[in-house]
Design brief:
CATH architecture of the largest domain: 2-Layer Sandwich
Mean pLDDT: 96
Bound molecules: 5'-O-[(R)-(carboxyoxy)(hydroxy)phosphoryl]adenosine, zinc ion
CATH superfamily of the largest domain: ATPase, nucleotide binding domain
Largest sheet: 5 strands, mixed
Structural class: alpha/beta
Radius of gyration: 20 Å
Strand order of the largest sheet: 3-2-1-4-5
Shape: globular
CATH topology of the largest domain: Nucleotidyltransferase, domain 5
Length: about 350
């Protein structure tokens, strides 16, 4: 079945057409129009500006996604099985643009609508390439700018959130660290690049960051203290500008260490068969490598997956992929009943 996915939760206007069936998921198009250049000068996403850009971009992006998938406005109603849209959590004014567009298309083309939780979309980014290899129970470490969660999946749409962040999300911590270190926005990729440079040089550093909540008895996270620790260190260090790569490296190491150790401990406790990483921070290759290594060493028989680069940060293919599994289970919704929400529950 072919599904059109739409995603506008934050500052990316995205649309995608997938073809999914028993043999897996094929992405026919995956269009993402990023607003990074616009928000860069403010050092973060300005909701009102983002919403206005979505309004300008949404129809061209949908049309391009249809065109690349060999569809047009005449053939789409016959060939598509459903329209899927991320309806929360995210920036409300951004979400509204995607949700109202999806509802209009669903009404006009007489197609069922499938609302998808944005976090569920990130989880399903792993199914795009690995649907036939993922075995349950699976644990998903889903890490982005808005959330940091450990989700236990006993089957499709069967979620138990076993760990969550008490304050900042891991991606948010990367972004704030980048601000402190004057590395621009979005911070994650730049902190990762600087950390990589430092590692390549083979240098060592005595800059060390705490590992927040590593020893706590639960699977929750907290990253705001890490950011404060960086701020204090930099304020006290007259020479910090010459050590940006070292700071980036140690900061990134602390985040990776906490994420990995908690995921491995949860994996052991819940007897999982698969560990998946997802969300924007899964674009971090050090995190991927570290997690892969630890799974191999500490979780016998467990397979590790992470999404392809194109499906790490916000995209609509992951929304369509999650929708396929809902469609398979007959879970459609009347477009009139779908609205935007800020619910981080799954
Ligand atoms: O999933 P996403 O695109 O949007 C949200 O749902 O929040 O994630 C964006 C987050 C940003 O905080 C960004 O800095 C982070 O993912 N990110 C990275 C990397 N690439 C993106 N963090 C660390 N290393 C990266 N390579
Ligand atoms: Zn996201």
């Amino acid at each position: 079945m072919k599904i059109l996915g739409i995603e506008t939760s934050c500052d990316e206007t995205a649309a995608s057409v997938i073809e999914a069936g028993e043999r897996g998921i094929k992405v026919l198009s995956n269009m993402v129009s990023s607003q990074v250049e616009i928000h860069k000068k403010y050092g973060g996403v300005i909701p009102e500006v983002a919403a206005r850009q979505h309004i300008l971009n949404i129809l061209p992006v949908i049309n391009k996604a249809l065109e690349e998938a060999g569809l047009n406005r005449n053939t789409a109603p016959k060939e598509l099985k459903a329209v899927a849209v991320a309806n929360g959590p995210g920036l409300i004014t951004s979400l509204i643009v995607g949700v109202e567009s999806a509802k209009s298309l669903s009404f006009a083309w007489n197609l069922p609508l499938i609302p998808i939780n944005h976090i569920e979309g990130h989880i399903y980014s792993n199914f795009i390439e690995h649907a036939d290899q993922i075995r349950f129970p699976a644990l998903v470490l889903t890490v982005s700018g808005g959330h940091t969660m450990l989700v236990l999946m006993k089957g499709h749409q069967n979620y138990q959130i076993i760990g969550d962040t008490r304050d900042d999300a891991a991606g948010e911590a990367f972004d704030k660290a980048a601000q402190i270190l004057d590395l621009g926005y979005p911070g994650g990729p730049e902190v990762a690049r600087r950390a990589g440079e430092f590692k390549k040089q083979g240098s060592s550093t005595d800059i060390v960051f705490p590992r927040p909540m590593l020893k706590s008895n639960d699977f929750n996270f907290s990253f705001s203290g890490l950011k404060t620790s960086l701020l204090y260190k930099v304020e006290k260090d007259k020479d910090w500008q010459s050590k940006v790569s070292a700071y980036s490296f140690s900061f990134q190491e602390a985040i990776i260490d906490v994420l990995t150790q908690k995921a491995i401990r949860a994996g052991k406790e819940f007897g999982i068969k698969t560990l998946m990483l997802s969300g924007g921070v899964s674009a971090n290759s050090e995190l991927v490598d570290h997690l892969r290594k630890e799974v191999k060493e500490s979780l016998e028989g467990v397979e590790f997956f992470h999404p392809e680069r194109a499906y790490t940060t916000d995209n609509a293919a992951m929304i369509a992929a999650a929708a396929y599994y809902r469609a398979r289970a007959g879970k459609f919704q009347n477009p009139g009943d779908v609205s935007v929400h800020c619910n981080a529950e799954l």
